[in-house]
Amino acid sequence: MIKLRKSExxxxxxxxxxxxxxxxLIAGAAAAARVFEPAALAAWLPLPTSxxxxxxxxxxxxxxxxxxxxxxxxxxxxxxxFNWLAFPFVAALLLAFAVTVRQIAEGRKNVDLxxxxxxxxxxxxxxxxxxxxxxxxxxxVSGDKRELLNPQGPLYSWFVR
Length: 161
Hints:
Elements: E1 2-6, H1 13-35, H2 38-42, H3 51-55, H4 64-72, H5 76-82, H6 86-106, E2 111-115, H7 119-142, H8 156-159
Antiparallel strand pairs: 1-2
């Protein structure tokens, strides 16, 4: 069960510092994602950069770095091409950023997020993730997104014929 409870508790000095660091990290990560071309950065890494490169088919988040980059650059069509989940991801990140900045400015915690993992919630989460993964594989295969697929991967032959 997920609940949002209103809270009026004042932030301690440590909590305020943690929130300032979080805001700076989010802003820095967004700036880096906008400035650096993800395809160019992949050449610097010694290992494949995604599970799609290893398994042959994309995971739920394959193409997310490129999608966020293009979304932040204003190229919505390319962001949608690489991974449509970048849109709700960036929206959630902006919401978290705004709530954190508000908490810093007011010096108090506005809401408490309470997550109680129940068997029902875990089952719904698992089914939802499996459905999202299936959709991502379908979109990659049907759209012939070669940059998200690896013909040498062990799962590729099961999904692509």
